[in-house]
Design a protein that fits this description.
The structure is a single chain. This protein has 118 residues and is an alpha+beta fold. The protein has helices at residues 31-49, 78-84, 87-90, 96-102, and strands at residues 18-25, 55-61, 68-75, 106-113. The protein has one domain: 2-Layer Sandwich (Alpha-Beta Plaits). Strand 2 and strand 3 form a beta hairpin. It is globular, with a radius of gyration of 14 Å. The relative contact order is 0.30. This is Antibiotic biosynthesis monooxygenase.
């Protein structure tokens, strides 16, 4: 199975920074289709946020566990994300409804500050 490439904005991700993470549990059979949809959603968000202050990058991780996909949005600070996030603009059928129709078992959102790498 071919893995999707990470999606990255043209910005350096520095430490520490704020990360919004989307974890999706999938069946191995549905993984390629769901990974493509999550990748589309992250690209959509990247286009919305690319020029916003504090936005660093978006990425999709589909390696490892065949039942888990992880999307991440990297921001310089939590306040930058809060200022940019607008549910009306960021909600899209591409994400919620399409992923559920494809057979996603669960979707979890989490966020937090990364630690400084030593």
């Amino acid at each position: 199975m071919t893995q999707p490439s990470p999606i990255h904005a043209h910005a350096c991700v520095d430490n520490p920074h704020f990360v919004l993470q989307i974890e999706i549990d999938v069946t191995p059979q549905q993984r390629p289709h769901i990974a493509a949809k999550l990748g589309d959603y992250l690209e959509h968000l990247q286009q919305l946020f690319y020029l916003r202050p504090g936005y660093l990058a978006s990425e999709l991780h589909a390696e490892g566990d065949p039942q888990r996909l992880v999307g991440r949005l990297h921001w310089r600070r939590k306040e930058d994300w809060e200022a940019a996030w607008d549910c009306r603009a960021t909600y899209t059928e591409l994400f919620a409804e399409s992923l559920l129709k494809l057979g996603v078992r669960s979707i979890r959102f989490s966020s937090g500050e990364t630690e400084r790498a030593l």
